[in-house]
Amino acid sequence: MLTYIKESYDELKHQVSLPTRSEASNLMVIVAVFSILFALATWAVDSLFSEVIQVYFNALIG
């Protein structure tokens, strides 16, 4: 376990590089856009299933 922690720290210190501020901003915008699109798609599927279930139960009851 100690070896794993030491190797992880060494890798983080010597091999990982942070993006520039402009790269980070661009990536943030991309993540935000895809998050909004995914939320809208989830809402659309939820609304569709809700309507289908309402029609089904209204036909079953009525």
Structure summary:
The protein is built from two helices and no strands. The protein has helices at residues 2-14, 21-61.
Detailed description of the structure:
The chain is elongated and about 70 Å long. Helices cover 87% and strands 0% of the residues. It has one domain. With 62 residues, it is mostly helical.
List keywords for this structure.
mainly alpha; elongated
Rg (C-alpha, Å): 24 Å
Given the helix and strand composition, which structural class is it? mainly alpha
Average of the residue pLDDT scores: 96
Helix proportion: over 70%
Strand content: under 5%
Largest sheet, in brief, is:
none
- N→C terminal distance: 65 Å
SSE inventory with pairings:
Layout: H1 2-14, H2 21-61
